[in-house]
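Example record used in the benchmark description.
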Amino acid sequence: MSKRLGVGKGGRPRALCVAAMVATSSTFVLAGCGPTITMPDVVGMRLDDAHRALEAMGVDHFDDTDVVGEEDVISLDINWVVVSQEPKPGTTNVDTGSTIRLSVGNEDEDEVLDMIPADSDFATEVASQEAEAAEAERREEEEAKEAERREAEERRSDAVEYAEKVDSSIASPSRAIMFLYLHNARAVREGAGPEVAASTALEARNFFDSLFTVLNTNDVSAPDSLGLNDVVTAMRDAAEGMMFACDELLKAIDTGSPSALAREASYRGTAIETWNTAMRDIYGAAERKPVLWPASRR
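Model output (structure tokens):
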């Protein structure tokens, strides 16, 4: 353990070199207290490393002073960095028995890096830590991007599977029914083919009734990963709307009521718009062209 002798900041004692007066003929010569060394450069080293380097050369008297912060006591040498030294680096004939004054700053003080050489031990250590932190952040970002890519791939796979399910069991069959329904609804408005139109309206009514029932089951719910929680509700509303439209068309066939035809057109138009919005959401998630109901002709 290094000795801190003499009086410096914090009240540490300082080693006093007691000189020996040696007589040589008629004069006195001041003799040194020990061997001498050329002062090494310890600026930019952690204080414990600086002490060890000097102790290895025979020096064990230090006066450590905080010149950056306001600490009166230097504790845990490993947390402190030498920012200047006295004697200066390269000073020759430094007595190993003398007190080495080391000005230090806490490693957490920002000013420390500005006071030491860029290639010194502590500056190199900090640069290495910053490089490691930057590399860790880069790896973390890459891992996050890869996880996001995998998630997007899985989500698209779910979307494709769901779109195919909707297409085969719901979208394509309902589209075929809608083409036939619209053709006969137009015939009714034009006053032609009421018998065929009535048959088609009943068939369509039964289809949309069945579709409404199917859409009330969980079997057609979208996977949670797609965030399409509202599409089944929209499809169900559209199916119900077409049921109302079929009822109004049948009334118009029976009575020839213009108001029934107007209500049929209103229900149908809203149902088609609602349905096609849901289809665009479903097929859009799968990056496929949507299977839409044909445009309404009022």
